[in-house]
Amino acid sequence: MQPYVLVLYYSKYGSTKQMAHLIADGVEATGVRARIRTVPNLATVVTQAEASIPSEGDIYCTLDDLT
What we know:
Elements (H helix, E strand, L loop, with lengths): L3 E6 L5 H15 L3 E6 L24 H4 L1
Parallel strand pairs: 1-2
């Protein structure tokens, strides 16, 4: 597997997502591959699990992404 820099973020309103994408652009400008991942929204009470793939936007981080 080719090495990469994981850009992992959580963004409730979108500002942090924009920053994560800018960071990934900067990483890739150096010639290193960037992998952008997010995490699902967390709540104190879980009534329903979120889908493993979000309906839009960046995909969720997996254990493989972290290794």
